[in-house]
Amino acid sequence: MDRIKPRTLSGFMELLPGPQMQFERMLESLRTTYSLYGFAPLDTPVIESAEILLAKGGGETEKQIYRFTKGDSDLALRFDLTVPLAKYVALNYGHLTFPFRRYQIGKVYRGERAQRGRFREFYQCDIDVIGDGKLDISNEAEIPSIIYNAFRSMGLERFRIRVNNRKILTGFYDMQGLGEQSGEIMRTVDKLDKIGAEKVRDLLMESGVSQEAAGEILTFIAITGSNQEVLAALEGYRGRNETFDQGVDELATVVKYLSAFGVPEENFSVDLTIARGLDYYTGTVYETVMLDHPEIGSICSGGRYDNLAGYYIDKPLPGVGISIGLTRLFYVLGEQGYFNEDMVTAPTDVLVLPMTEDLAPAISFATLLRAGGIRAQVYGEQKKFKAKMSYADKLKIPYVVFLGEEEISQGMVKVKNMATGDQQAMEPVAAVALIRESKETLAREKPIQEKQV
Amino acid sequence: MDRIKPRTLSGFMELLPGPQMQFERMLESLRTTYSLYGFAPLDTPVIESAEILLAKGGGETEKQIYRFTKGDSDLALRFDLTVPLAKYVALNYGHLTFPFRRYQIGKVYRGERAQRGRFREFYQCDIDVIGDGKLDISNEAEIPSIIYNAFRSMGLERFRIRVNNRKILTGFYDMQGLGEQSGEIMRTVDKLDKIGAEKVRDLLMESGVSQEAAGEILTFIAITGSNQEVLAALEGYRGRNETFDQGVDELATVVKYLSAFGVPEENFSVDLTIARGLDYYTGTVYETVMLDHPEIGSICSGGRYDNLAGYYIDKPLPGVGISIGLTRLFYVLGEQGYFNEDMVTAPTDVLVLPMTEDLAPAISFATLLRAGGIRAQVYGEQKKFKAKMSYADKLKIPYVVFLGEEEISQGMVKVKNMATGDQQAMEPVAAVALIRESKETLAREKPIQEKQV
């Protein structure tokens, strides 16, 4: 037979069973957290009409998009979950109840140049709240608090959600008479972390900003400290621009509510250098950094926008949303050795080994285990005992249960804890209780375990 | 602004939030059931190299495939989950532990001609057990028993898994001296339900089968009755063909174990007319019909094969698997009015309505609810009371909790059961207990509710 060498395309993540289980646990953490906050799951097609996906105009994205024809149709693969959301809300406007809160976890596609840690197929895990005409500011604080809880439920603790407000930036540049250049200035300021303040000053002046204004900008973005200190410093600019003042009010409200939502100040900070894109966001914006690995960049970003679907529908649809790029985050966590070795990645909690030809007693006991919510596999292969144990070992299955003639005749099962090597005969119901208790303990292990730095 | 009319491609299912919640519940039932039997989740890319996907040769599939180039790469979207599994096992052979049990739930793509109830993007929900060289017959009984439990957990009861064994068919046609024509004959016999026995006889004779052999074939496929009766009738053919005899032994074993696995005879039957494809399956084969809607065809099919990945790797990899086409099943269930109206499809269990300007008490109570596993949304919009209640009504949210000055000062919350209209003030912890109990009752509602026929 002519054989073809099996391979997976570069830029596409495909995991072995153990890591896949860790990835699933992270997905599950997100689904659970998003659901607990009353977000409805949404699923949209991976393929859409290219005209629909590119309605907004593509820019960089357009070059990366997977686009092809099938019959007469000009098709494309979605490159994010926001455009499909906009389409969905516009299409189903009359059937939705607003504020519409949806989460969507799905794969998106970008034909980027392949390089380490960059993916062409990757999971985005988004939440958005969409209002019909209006949307309360409290949503802008709730969204990062959900992300805080989502990361915590995965075991991530040393991260910080950085918050800013686009109105503050717009208002500030207006004050400086630089309103029209504000987009370009924000792009330059965005490089602060990378190139430092003096280089930013040079670049600003090269682009025609006066020395005085450049000084003002550098003073402004140098405002740091606790959230209250930053807010206090911003008060010093109040009264000179309406948009700015509104932005400060909003930011103060978001900071207040973030505390009410239970997010410790360690995990969020006002950061005036955050801008996030240029046209789309209009209010609060977010970025999230890992405190021990700032070089990774933002692992979760988003913000407030005023016009979700203007290119599809003549309705003002303001919203606020945030997105986790889970595939890249997973990759980065792996690179940094952040996975919890104590998390069970075995596909089953128990391997039931029938020691008789008749499998029926083993099947019955496995049924009892499953009724108790325990994952159980009956090992039905005709192999030597050693091979059976080796199977459990290799898969790191926590418990093995033996069912031989003796146990069956006594109505007992023999339970072996594979971690300790302890082995004891017990009644089936007691075995279920023991294994369930152990499973519940193990289930508390989170997929991520941060190293002490 | 130039607007583009929002639309979703035909042949692509996109659901409103309520039905989406039902779909998610079905996905969850499958994930849970598959996990309880010790299957590891697998996720493979939607895009693969066309050469890889078409290694086996496409036939009908090749015409339907979404295939395109990106740069120099000849790419295609997966059209099932079996070819990606074969690639995965061949690629990772040295890293997997066999028998390798995996489930995969994911979208696949086929550019079929659009028609009602046919989808170009649809979910397949597969389980397979792959052996390294050998695989015990007990797996061939376990697989349909898992499907039985999966369907039951969704609320489906009136279905029947029809089981046959390809060795019986191969052996039988060999006995008749029709071994070389057996593929064509099976295709003809497969039409029995549609065209009736006499038409099948005519077609067989037209294709060169002797009158006597055609008579033998019709007698054979007319064997019906209880599983034991069919097995007894098959005994009458024993001793004439080794493959046939082996098939009868396997079928008898599968029937015996299916009972041990707890599948009632009402839900599975031996059916000698089932053949399932032509080259791939070599042992037990399955189809599943809805008893009240046989016209829908098989809702879950699969079988035993001997050579999963021969076109990628020089290793005998026998396996057994089954697949549910969930998108089509969901569509059909909807058409037949099978969805359970009592299932909660609201995105949240509780809507918390703050009646004061300060949202903090509402946020605190929602946090308490979530800690108890209850989905809770704080309604933060500045709307009239009536509009807030209408939001809960429209989304069919089971409970609304009011937090006014009075309740806050007394440390109480006011809980309204939206189904009964009952409203009472209670302590927060009591409210959590009440809502949780109600949630647990409601969670017992399954997504499918069959009508009495």
How would you describe this protein?
The structure is a homodimer of 453-residue chains. By secondary structure, the first copy, chain A, is of the alpha+beta class. Chain A is built from 17 helices and 16 strands. Chain A has helices at 17-36, 50-53, 60-64, 82-91, 138-154, 166-175, 182-189, 192-195, 197-206, 211-221, 227-235, 242-260, 326-335, 360-371, 385-394, 405-410, 428-443; strands at residues 40-41, 47-49, 67-70, 73-77, 100-109, 121-130, 159-165, 268-270, 281-290, 300-305, 319-325, 350-354, 376-378, 399-403, 413-417, 423-426. The first copy, chain A, has an eight-stranded mixed beta sheet. The first copy, chain A, has a five-stranded mixed beta sheet with strand order 13-12-14-15-16, sandwiched between helices. A three-stranded antiparallel beta sheet of chain A has the order 2-4-3. In chain A, helix 11 (227-235) packs antiparallel against helix 12. The longest helix of chain A has 20 residues, at 17-36. The N and C termini of chain A lie far apart (54 Å). The mean pLDDT of chain A is 94. The interface between A and B is large, with 100 and 100 residues.
